[in-house]
Design the sequence.
């Protein structure tokens, strides 16, 4: 499916309001802003916005939220922080959105973090697992939308300690907060054993053309386990590069954000067999969920609103999942769509169930606890889809 290069906008219903405050009127719009990489090195994530555009269209077709229609404006920032600043300012100052929702990336969100907090604009469910997004004391208006990268790193290390305590580990990581957080959690869980179990580390810049030299160095270390903290095209490069080197690390971990089929396919799905990642969501193509009500609801939505989409691409399910969460928060706002009340409701979730969450996982937040998701389950790629295994794990 060809992704849009320009703004995605869903606007069904009544005339546009002129200020965010006008949304307090029961007949006004709910104006939601977002930036995503519809172009650039991680453009595969643009599908998240495509799914959310369709979901808000569905919501509007069914009458909207508490009598209001949603206007969803998702702009391309190409995964470039200066572009994120430009597009976010446009959304806040020209489009006058009431909140920012589900924008992707650590460096990109960081570029507008202080701006949105100074403007008192909710920056909700940031698609980045950096620990900094859960800091209500210093950045009250920002909330994360993912389990933290550190927590995910902890879970991978715990699994290794249980199943392969004599592992020789190589780590490749992106040289930014994304990479550093994963590695920090991984090392924290390994504890004193990190010094002996980790035999090689390398990093790369997200602007680099290739990572081939790093992979060659890591293989030469004799490591039999690989933890690749990569994103976008570097996921494909890493998987294909490891295969071309005839290196067979086992286990071979990748972040949840790198597990989309759209990143595995360019490397060859056969080369991705055995990869381990984690998730808190059901895989709609996994046979174990064939009769699950939430998965059936998702598949019916896809059939009606995105009939030509590749269901193997988990970014569609991710977009649907987060849009569900956002709608539940907005429903809880009732007739008060002020920015203050939107934030209040987002930080007052109590064991909320969502259709695509794994059984036993719910969403809870509080004024001092901004982390909506803190549990994950490991899963392994079998050449066609991801198959969950083991128990639900957390960072404890």
Sequence:
């Amino acid at each position: 499916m060809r992704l849009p290069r320009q703004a995605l906008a869903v606007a069904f219903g009544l005339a546009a309001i002129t200020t965010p405050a006008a949304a307090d009127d029961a007949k006004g719009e709910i104006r939601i802003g977002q930036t995503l990489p519809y172009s650039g090195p991680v453009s595969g994530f643009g599908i998240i916005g495509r799914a959310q555009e369709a979901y808000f269209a569905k919501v509007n077709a069914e009458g909207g939220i508490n009598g209001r229609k949603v206007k969803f404006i998702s702009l391309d920032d190409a995964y470039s922080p200066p572009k994120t600043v430009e597009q976010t300012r446009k959304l806040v100052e020209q489009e006058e959105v009431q909140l920012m929702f589900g924008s992707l990336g650590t460096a990109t969100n960081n570029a507008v973090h202080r701006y949105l907090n100074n403007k008192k604009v909710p920056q909700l469910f940031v698609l980045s697992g950096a620990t900094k997004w859960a800091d209500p004391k210093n950045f009250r208006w920002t909330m994360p939308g993912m389990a933290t990268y550190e927590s995910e790193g902890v879970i991978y290390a715990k699994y290794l300690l249980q199943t392969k305590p004599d592992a020789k580990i190589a780590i490749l990581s992106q040289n930014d907060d994304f990479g550093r957080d994963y590695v920090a959690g991984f090392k924290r869980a390994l504890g004193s054993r990190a010094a002996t179990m980790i035999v090689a580390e390398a990093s790369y810049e997200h602007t680099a053309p290739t990572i081939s030299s790093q992979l060659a160095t890591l293989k030469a270390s004799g490591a039999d386990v690989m933890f690749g903290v990569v994103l976008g095209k570097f996921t494909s490069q890493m998987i294909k590069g490891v295969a071309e080197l005839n290196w067979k690390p086992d286990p071979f971990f990748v972040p949840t954000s790198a597990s989309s089929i759209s990143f595995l396919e360019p490397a060859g799905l056969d080369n991705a067999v055995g990869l381990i990642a984690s998730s808190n969501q059901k895989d709609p193509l996994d046979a174990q969920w064939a009769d699950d009500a939430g998965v059936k609801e998702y598949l019916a939505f896809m059939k009606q609103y995105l009939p030509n989409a590749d269901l193997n691409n988990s970014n569609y399910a991710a977009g649907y999942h987060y849009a569900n969460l956002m709608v539940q928060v907005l429903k809880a706002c009732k007739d008060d769509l002020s920015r203050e009340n939107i934030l209040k409701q987002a930080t007052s979730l109590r064991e909320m169930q969502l259709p695509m969450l794994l059984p036993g996982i719910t969403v809870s937040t509080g004024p001092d606890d901004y982390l909506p998701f803190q549990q994950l389950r490991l899963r392994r790629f079998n050449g066609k889809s991801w198959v969950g295994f083991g128990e639900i794990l957390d960072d404890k």
Q: What stands out?
A: The longest strand covers residues 30-36. Residues 8-147+290-365 form a domain with the Rossmann fold fold (CATH 3.40.50.2300).
